[in-house]
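Researcher: Before we compare anything, I want clean individual predictions. No alignment, no superposition, just each chain on its own. First chain goes here; please echo the sequence and then give the structure tokens.
Model: Echoing the first chain and its structure:
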Amino acid sequence: MKKYVIYSTMLLCVTLLFAACRTNKFNTTKVMNKDFTQYKTYGWLAPIDSLSKDYFSNDIARENIMIAANTEIEKLGLTYSKENPDILFRYIAIVNNKSRMVWSNPYWGGGWGFGPWGMMGMGWGMGWGGGWSQPVGREGYRYAHIIVEAVDRKEDAVVWQARGSREVRNPERAINRLPEVVRGIFKQYPVRN
């Protein structure tokens, strides 16, 4: 029973670690001391030309973003207006190519592991701890950002901006997750109903 608890705990920790690496991250900024309750109607500006031609510059991605955004904005109590809206929203989609170090596997060598009879103990082979890790190269990856800005129509100035970011491994899945990212972005809006 004790082995099962230890093994389950280690498996849970590894699962949570990998889950944490694949989550959305949100950042926001706003004009301080701005009364966001004054805005009652909203409209849209054209999206800023996307810097991610292969990912989010297609009709499905645009539609996913707009449907999710309109739903979230209306939950905030704003009403869509084509004629003189109080606040205008726009978005930009960006996908950056990045790279990170790849390290040798630190789990080969001495350390804790399961022995030949399934018992925990000290020894050589694959296990937890022990060994040294060193850089062995670089790997490329893509990181996507959806940025939403709110522009005060009378002042013609950005008053709020929020960004949702996530590592992208599969373009189709990334497009299907856009509504989730947009919902998270609008949770950052300064006024909540």
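Researcher: Okay. Second chain, same rules.
Model: Second chain and its structure:
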Amino acid sequence: MSERVRRVVPRFLAYLWVVVGTVATALALDWFLVPNQIAAGGVSGLATITYHWFGWPVGVVMLAINIPLFLASLRFLGREFGIKTVVGAVSLSFWTDLLATRVEPLTHDPLLAAIYGGILAGAGMGLSFRAGGSTGGTDMAARITAHFTAFSTGRALLLADGLVIVAAALAFSPELALYALLAVFLTGKAIDLVQEGQSYAKAAYIISSRAEEIGRAVLEELERGGTALHGTGLYTGEHREVLLVIVSRSEVAQLKGLVSRTDPRAFLVLHDVHEVLGEGFGPMTPAPGAPPPPGAGRIRRRRAV
């Protein structure tokens, strides 16, 4: 494979995933959200309101709002959004209006529409985000607001979506606004799930005066690597090693057993890990369509202590 092809193929795949994500988001709008008057925040929420009040096409309204937002972002924030944002915003508007004439709503129950519409929209947006794209909308508005005010981007985004939901309550009904709030929540969760993956591993922090023995047991019994960190007790001032070990869910009980057997007074902290890349877990692969980093695939085994 030539060097040029090697550079072009990942870029093509990235744009392809952006388009696939916008198709899924458009289906969420046409199948569930728009027919049931669920304005689930953002530019699509505003477009849903104008569609039911004035009959304006949802995709056209989204594009009309996104164009000035994108120009303002270029003016005040620079070129950080890039061409993938343009592709994502235009693609979402195109597919939303095209599919609206070819698909029928799958349900007229607002609760089902909020649940499935929110999840499908979040999955589609998550695919676009993983490929480095964006659908524009309130994300750009939030960054512009944060640029000129004391609001953080996250608070500005929450404010923008909140104003859209308030507008939905005034335009439709408070009950439909509550369904829209549910859809916004599920969309955020679905985006996180697509980008980060489902929790399938556990990170363990082990604080013990017998860290070396525990590390050796982890290597020999679990056949897992680990990292020794240096910690200091705030109360005693004593220096102790802190072991960081990543294990699968099925190995948690075995890890607890060997820690308890080696040092019953050890301090063990477990928390969820959404994605682990490296030997013994997932391969060190980039996001869909992204070029592999230099040296990817050359993973060396680490010793615990």
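Researcher: What stands out in the second chain?
Model: The longest helix spans residues 3-33. Additionally, Residues 288-305 have pLDDT under 50 and may be disordered.
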